[in-house]
Amino acid sequence: MKFSFQWVWPVALAFGTGMGGAYFWAHTAPDAAKVAAAEAKIAAQKSSAGLSGGSSTPKTKAWSPESPLGGILSASTGAERILAAAAMVDQTPVGGLAGLIEQSRNCPDDKLRQSLMDMAYAKWATADPQAALANARTAATRRYDKDTGPLNEVFGTWAASDPQAALDAAKKMDLTSLRADAVRSVLSTMAQGPDPLSAVTAAKSLAGPQRSQALRSVFDSWSTADPAAAFGALNQLDNQNLKSDYARSIVINMSNQDPQAALNMLHSLPPGLQNVDAYAYTFSHMAIQNPTAAVASLDQVPAGPMRQYAVQAVAADWADSDPQSAIAWANSLTSPSERATALFYSIRHMSGSDPAGAIAQVGNIPNAGQRATAISDIMSNWADNNPTAALNWVENNTTGTSYDNSINAVISKIAVNDPTMAADYVAKMPDGAARARLINTTINAWSPVDPTAALSWANQNLTGSDLNNSTSRILRDLVATDPMAGAAYVAQMPDGPTRNSAILSIANTLSKQDLNAALDWIDGMGNVPDNTKRSAVQNIINTWAEVDPASAATRLQTLAGNPAYSSVVASVAANWASSDPSAALQWVETLPDDGTRTNALNRTITAIASTDPATAWKDLATLPNTPERSSLMLNVVNSWSRQSPATAAQLLPQLPAGPERTAAFSSVTSMWLQQSPIGASQWINTLSTGPERDAAVNSLVVNQEQTDPGTALGWAATISGDTTRLNAYRNVMVQMARKDPAAANVALQKLQLTDDQRTTLATLIAKTPPAQPPNPDMYSN
Question: 73, 112 in Cβ contact below 8 A?
């Protein structure tokens, strides 16, 4: 297998010269006659399936057929669709990009949605990076998005024009995970700019694991543009493990361009920094370009795994172009292990161009396991080239396990190329595990491309579990491509798990096109078990709530009073709260107080708190003082601590006293320690003695017990609760004992303990196994 590392330059660079929107629209305009015919067909299918065609609400107005975005879907496909989207982005003013991005989130075409958002964010970041960043930050943390792609796009685009400003902004990201990704995006772009060494310097200034991750991004990116320069910059690193790892990536990238230069790079490295994978990649590319030179260069490879992988690479890639020469070379090798490896890979790859010749040679492979693997590969390639000949060979030359493996390889390939041929063969097989397995193989290949034909064949040729399993699989594909036909088929199916599963699939698929119609359909279906109908309705409403929560709330009124839909109501409220918290809360207040309202209120406040804890806290002040309110206050404080632990700490005294408030002191401390250990420590010193301070101190001890057990032990001694303090001592002592048992015993003698406690901890130290020898260079550069 060959890999290549590729850096995609920020898409924003495509903008600025104008993309000719009029041109794209002129070549993607929908054909009115085709649209009319399609609409007539759909209407007829709706009627035959019992679907309502009266009231319909598209998934979102932005993608209605009459809208420009809907026009892209209806009038274009493939590359034309992406070009039309690019033209739309190009024509959209910067001030309108936020709206376009919001509409794009609901696009049913995943590829088009991603392309639209990437291009819109890139254009926005070029014109106003701060505004684009604010929007992308929301997308990365919004409950139903959690998509960091826009952030990477913004930072990559920004770094192309102002790397220092982009890097400063990346380092100020409030969440640790987002900050790390943002920094890597900026540094990767800088590495392909005019001063890649500045990216190395910036990466080296980071701390801990983040430094090594950032350096990897820098060298990976740099080596795709200029592997020789990136290789020369490895002397900037003192960490030998990192240097070896990065050298491997650089050599692999160089081998794509100049395998001889890549080999020279490898030879220039000390033996400890040379890498098996790098040799394999280098000789693979060398064998493709000049197999004779590759064979001659093998003499320069040290014996052992590196030479073995190099031999493997030469055999495989030489056999792709000249199998007879590769096999002759393999037979000439004097080392038995190298000859066996070379024969296996030569014959295996020969099957790509000459499967009949390869099967004639396969007996020369000495290893039985490799021989079986080669046969499966050969049969798969033969079935691609001449399926009848492959089947004849399997039937006449194999038995038992060899037959099972070979026929599976042949039918798997035939099912992709000619599913009817595969199905006819399988239908004639005797009942048994082999037939059942090949039926599944055939249906899995056939169903996605022609579910109607596959379903017809299954009904005519299968019975029992084979029919049920195949029908379930085919219906998923039929519903995905033609939900009307799927609905019509399901309507006449007998009751059972297969039908119930299909009903759920149809409801989900219809909900992506017409939410009202989906609800009307499931409501009008007869003989549907209550739990199946409830699940279908819940899925539809949840989908609706993501797109238009206010409209979903209105439709939910028709289900009022049914406690089974309490969780659906809560989902609608939470979705609504992300876009309009005030309206969501007002709606929740109108709900019946039968548990539905409480559940919805919890979800709503939690959703608001995830992005805007200040608003959530303010909203809580308007609610009655109930146990539910106290629990919500705790949730808001915990959410706030992820953004500003110092602010969250100020709210802790306002929480009702009890175990939950004590736990909040612990969680706030944990979040604060990730952002500012000094600030957290100073805050703890201001707390009064008691369980709440103990909880905060214990979090600090857990945070430091591995990196600084001495300091952690000192903090543990300030815990007032005997049990909590002893447990903290226990945890710290284990960490100290793993690194230095003698130091742990010395520290133990300084603690104020009872004799029994001291004996217990001493026994623990003695039984603690030592840690693996640490690598002193792990995080040094």
Answer: yes
3-state SS string over 593-626? Answer: CCCHHHHHHHHHHHHHHHHCHHHHHHHHCCCCCC
Torsion angle of the four alpha carbons 592, 595, 601, 603, in this order, in degrees rounded to the nearest 10: -130
Residue 726 tokens, joined: 């002893």
For the CA atoms of 473, 476, 477, 481, the dihedral, rounded to the nearest 10 degrees, stands at 170
Note the residue count of the chain.
Answer: 781
213 vs 147, 198, 204, 219, 709, CA distance in Å?
A: 20, 16, 10, 10, 26
User: What is the token pair recorded at 414?
Assistant: 């035939």
Q: Residue 147: name the closest of 183, 113, 186, 170 by CA.
A: 113
At 585, the amino acid letter reads L
Cα(717)–Cα(695) distance, integer angstroms: 13
DSSP H or E stretch at residue 525 = none
* Residues 219 and 190: beta-carbon distance below 8 Å: no
Q: Distances in Å between the alpha carbon of 593 and those of 444, 560, 604? A: 49, 12, 15
How far apart CA 577 and CA 144 sit, in angstroms, is 12
Distance CA 51, CA 591 (A): 31
Under a CB-based contact definition with an 8 Å cutoff, are residues 712 and 697 in contact?
no
Cβ-count burial of 614 within 10 angstroms (0-12 exposed, 13-18 middle, 19+ buried)? Answer: middle
Q: What is the pLDDT of residue 565?
A: 62
User: Is 607:618 a contact under the CB 8 Å cutoff?
Assistant: no
What's the pLDDT score for residue 559? 63
Two tokens at 336?
């038995």
Separation between Cα atoms, residue 610 and residue 72, nearest integer Å: 34
Tell me the average pLDDT across 723-737.
90
Structure confidence at residue 566 (pLDDT): 64
Phi, psi of 304 (to 5 degrees): 115, -160
pLDDT in tens, 444-484: 999 999 999 999 999 999 998 898 889 888 988 887 788 77
Give the contacts of 400 (CB within 8 A, at least 6 positions apart): none
Helix (H) / strand (E) containing 271 = none
